[in-house]
Each structure stands twice: as C-alpha cells, then as structure tokens.
Specification:
Radius of gyration: 15 Å
Strand order of the largest sheet: 1-2
Largest sheet: 2 strands, antiparallel
CATH class: Mainly Alpha
Low-confidence stretches: none
Number of helices: 5
CATH architecture: Up-down Bundle
Strand content: under 5%
Number of domains: 1
Shape: elongated
Length: about 140
C-alpha cells in the first residue's frame, strides 16, 4: 500500500505498533524464556505509537504542511509479517524480521518528511534506533 499523507502514515504507525505489541504478548505466553523481554517490548510499542501521535498533533499547525510529504511511501517494501514460530529460535528470528521491517519503515518515513517537519522525523529516527538496539539484543 502506498502512503502519501501524514494521516495515512499515522494510521499505519498505529497498526504497526498495536499489532506488533499484541504479537509480542502472544509470543510471551508461548515462550517463557522470552516473556519478560516481550512484555516490555509490547508496552514500549504502545508508548511509541502514543509518542509519535502526540508529537504529530503537537507540531502540525497547517494541514497542508504535511500533506503529500510521503509521496509513494510503499508499505509493501517493509516485511512485518507476524508469523507463528514453532520454537524460541524461530521466535527470535521472526522478532528480528518484525523489528527490521518497522525500523526500515520509520527511517524511510523520516527521510521523506524531514524537509516539511522536524519533530516527527526526529521521533521516528529515535524509535528506529531503539529497534536497532532490539535487533542487536536478540
């Protein structure tokens, strides 16, 4: 799906963060060795969504300034498939893939919107940095 506006990006961000949080909670119930980590990540994902939303609403004063900032941002470029892993090793691989996909989306969205907005791209890059740390942690 191609996104063009900040509203479309916000809808996708909400979907990414809420679905990945639910996915991590589900995996936490299946893999006790990862439960603490996954529960913390799920909570953090919900906080990320709220932080991006608040930043956006806090800085947008003219709806035209963010319209079409994301001309052709294609969500299909970023694999965030929430698969059903059979064991803990597969769960970690799936989590790395989810984190990398969300990170890639945030970095591209930040790059595309930097010229029109300062705060939103900054928050997206910060969260992308956390996602890189998560990948390293796994």
């Amino acid at each position: 799906m191609k996104l063009n506006t900040m509203a479309a990006v916000m809808t996708h961000v909400s979907k990414l963060e809420t679905e990945s949080a639910a996915y991590y909670e589900k995996l936490a119930g299946r893999f006790s060795g990862l439960a603490g980590l996954l529960e913390a990540w799920a909570k953090e994902n919900r906080r990320f969504e709220k932080n991006i939303r608040q930043t956006y609403y806090g800085v947008i004063t003219d709806t035209l300034e963010s319209n079409y900032a994301f001309e052709g941002l294609d969500t299909d470029e970023f694999d965030v498939a929430l698969t059903e892993p059979a064991d803990e090793a597969q769960a970690k691989a799936a989590m790395r893939k989810v984190e990398a996909g969300i990170r890639g989306f945030y970095l591209k969205a930040a790059a595309m919107s930097e010229g029109l907005m300062a705060d939103v791209p900054r928050v997206l890059k910060k969260i992308a940095g956390v996602r890189a740390e998560r990948i390293e942690e796994l």
